[in-house]
Amino acid sequence: MNKQQFGDFIANNRKAAGLTQRALAERLHVTDKAVSKWERALSYPDVTLLEPLAEALGLGVEELMACRRIEVRKDEEEEAVENIREERPVQNLMEISRENLKSERRKHVWQTALALALMLATTLGTIWYCSTYIREERKNTIFLKETVGNENYLYVEDKGHLLRLKCGEGVDFDGIKQTDEGNYPFEYRLDCRWNRRTYEGTVASCEPTGRISLGGMMDVTFETESDRLFWYDKVFYTSENYYPDPYGEPSGQVYLCDYRFWTGEWDETVEWNVWKRMQTVLLVEDCLNATVADIDQDGHNEVVVRTRWPEKPYMVYDWCDDYKVKEIDQYWLDSVSPELQERLMTEQERWAQLQ
């Protein structure tokens, strides 16, 4: 079927019937824009509209499909109808049906594409929001209190950055004390929301936990001790390299360290005393604490280590002197004496006990 011929046929018969595009559209319950598209050969009517369209134009469906009106005498009507039928109205009807189907498919494709685009945009937006904004309850010391204009701000540390948190109505800004009489920072529990890109956010509540923070253990000086150990008459030992346990609770308050055991002597010939002939006997890494004790009462001291694992809290390093080969062996213990438990307390636990 010629789409332009079909459009012209509708337009001519609409005008002959004295109908405007809007009037025809109202009869068919469509928009006048739809009628305009038919007449401009931009689209076909829906198949379900062919019969009411023909009726509104004073035509039969076959006449509409053939794009030709029957205007003959009664005795010639049967022959004229047969001629129209020979002009393949059914095929024309099938063409309109195929056109409608293609249009519906295109519409469905666009609707599906739009739905997928919206879903993708929503997903990406959610991922971006979740990766950018954090809502959490955290425990921190307050590094700085600041008032800018009429707004109050708290500054706390997060992995080498300072978070700038605007105080909400539930925060007693004036009642927040940063340190105690000994200048040790107080710890607070904060309910906050912040942007990981700008390191700015808001804090809805700030309540004291009742604990203080010892701060950076790297600034603490520990004494070097000495004792008989293994097959040595004198071994020196001390802790070093303190760092926060990333899995410790409470967060940021548990520190791990290394314990070094060595032999040597001070070199007193230089202005700053240094070790000479220093030789490391044992290096225990990533532990909570360590000490020297004769735990098995065999007359020789062992190294007793408090590990970071609650499932296996103690490890012992002992001298294995089988076959006159001097080696250091190790084994695990689930418990030790109360005296050793006290000696293996961490600095944080000692402070908590004093509090």
Helix segment tally: 9
Distance between the termini: 96 Å
Structural class: alpha+beta
Q: How many DSSP E strands?
A: 14
What is the residue-mean pLDDT, rounded to a whole number? Answer: 81
Summary, kept brief:
Helices cover 31% and strands 34% of the residues.
Question: Can you offer a commentary on this structure?
Answer:
- The chain has 355 residues and is of the alpha+beta class.
- The protein has 3 domains: 3-87, 434 Repressor (Amino-terminal Domain) (Orthogonal Bundle); 135-212, Nucleic acid-binding proteins (OB fold (Dihydrolipoamide Acetyltransferase, E2P), Beta Barrel), CATH 2.40.50.140; 217-354, no CATH class.
- The chain contains 9 helices and 14 strands.
- It has helices spanning 3-16, 21-28, 32-39, 50-56, 61-66, 77-86, 89-132, 338-343, 347-354, and strands spanning 133-141, 144-148, 151-158, 161-167, 186-195, 200-212, 225-229, 232-244, 255-267, 274-287, 289-293, 302-306, 314-320, 327-333.
- It has a 6-stranded mixed β-sheet. Strands 7-8-9-10 form a 4-stranded antiparallel β-sheet, with no helix packed on it. Strands 11-12-13-14 form a 4-stranded antiparallel β-sheet, with no helix packed on it.
- A hairpin with a 6-residue loop joins strand 9 and strand 10 (274-287).
- Helix 2 (21-28) crosses helix 3 (32-39).
- The longest helix has 44 residues, at 89-132.
- The relative contact order is 0.06.
